[in-house]
Amino acid sequence: MRLVKHRAAISVVVLIAFLLVRAITSPRSNGDTDVLIRDTQRILDCAQSGVFHGCTIVHFPLFQFIPALILKARGTSDATVAVILAWLNWAAFAATVALMWWALRRSVSRTVAMVAVFVLLTGPLLPYSVETFNEPAAAFLVLAFSVAVLVGAHPGWIVLLCVLAAITKETAPPFLFLLGLCGLFGRQDARHSTAMNLAVLVVACGVGAAINSGFNYFRYDTIFNVQLLAREFRVDTREQQAVNFAGIWLSPNGGVIPFWPSFALVCGVVGHTVLTARPRVLTVWWPATLLAALLLGLTIGLSAWYVPLGWIAWGPRLLLPWLPAVVFLASHFYSAAIERGVAWLSANPARFWTATVFFTACALPHFVEVLDSRVLSAMFAPDALFPRMMTVQEDRAGYFAQANHFMWSKGSMLVDSYEWVWHPRFRDKLLLCVACVVVLAQAIAASARESLPPSRSIPDRDA
After folding, report:
1. For the chain, which end, N or C, has fewer CB atoms within 10 Å of the first or last residue's CB respectively?
2. How far apart are CA 33 and CA 78, in angstroms?
3. Where are the alpha helices (DSSP H) in 237-308?
4. Which residue, among 370, 375, 356, has the nearest Cα to 419 in the 3D structure?
5. pTM value > 0.90
6. Is the distance from CB of 37 to CB of 68 less than 8 angstroms?
7. Average pLDDT value for residue range 1-16
8. How is residue 35 annotated by DSSP?
9. What is the DSSP string of 423-439?
10. 451 to 116, 120, 214, 339: CA distances (angstroms)
11. Chain-wide mean pLDDT for the chain?
């Protein structure tokens, strides 16, 4: 068992180290970060001029302004700020992987912990570990908050993590409350009453919302984010919202299911467990109901936004910060079902290798994007159907027509990525990534076989 543990750890460490090398040698920035850094300087100028309200800046959430403000106040150049933000994202992603492993290994089992790490390392968060978008940091803080609630951390830590997570996304507080309720449901200690625990969650979410409102007052002279609430940034029809809703989950250029099949499988296992459970006890359906409400609420909210996937970006960017926490809580509450599924797959070599090849192949586009963003750039470039990029302000009908084209009919970034798998520049690096994923899959299978009691052994032949 020690060999299995070390084999898994080595594969994960090698892959995380590879991402670190990419973050150091080839960090990537984006237009949003350029705007954020520019407006960070404007915040400093307003403060130096004694302007503490009505300092009009972009609608981005507060959290990423904090490191940018610290760096700009020290005279750091814009280019260096962007590089450091990319490094912080790598650190956040590495911390997310480590926390996922530690929390599930502590509360459930090594097998389930490795499965959850496998899900993270085959998902669309990978490219963001070398990028400057806010998603990796937000994902870590949302996960850390969920873990803190579940393990019964000190209320001070819960409040701090909730507030930090709340300022990564302005709409976060109500969804953090749902995650907190889910975590409270699984808490085993009785150090605090239910009323006390709920009060901590309410206070934490309220403080986060209040800080967001205060930041809005600083930049807009009102507690509301007037840019986010502007009508021009909302869809015009229910039909377009329905298209966006479907795209968040199914689009070949950003949907959760095409971009993260291993996450979709975890959701499928949870759904099957809930639907087939007899009797239908509270402990089976209540956590799944809260997680489903979280995902449904996020999807409805994002589908009303003019860029539901957070474009120009890889995968369902705006939904990504919440998904590691969903993986964690689903793995905790439905660990037995996950272990049975892994044992069934690992009992037969054909099933195991089919699953391993499938999920590794699905992860390849993410590794390609880590190495080079040309596929992403080509997808969001003008084409014969739309020879120029449309904006929602100048031509709403044209903008949504182009957005739907990108979402549904302009090929698939995932498919296009496979054209570069054997490119001489990428081949050796991709082989390293594939080897790490395969070794981790083998470690999961070995752990599942060794941890299954003899009386519950699953035969190697198909039923």
Report:
1. C
2. 10
3. 238-250, 256-259, 261-276, 282-303
4. 375
5. yes
6. yes
7. 81
8. H
9. -TTTHHHHHHHHHHHHH
10. 17, 23, 52, 9
11. 92
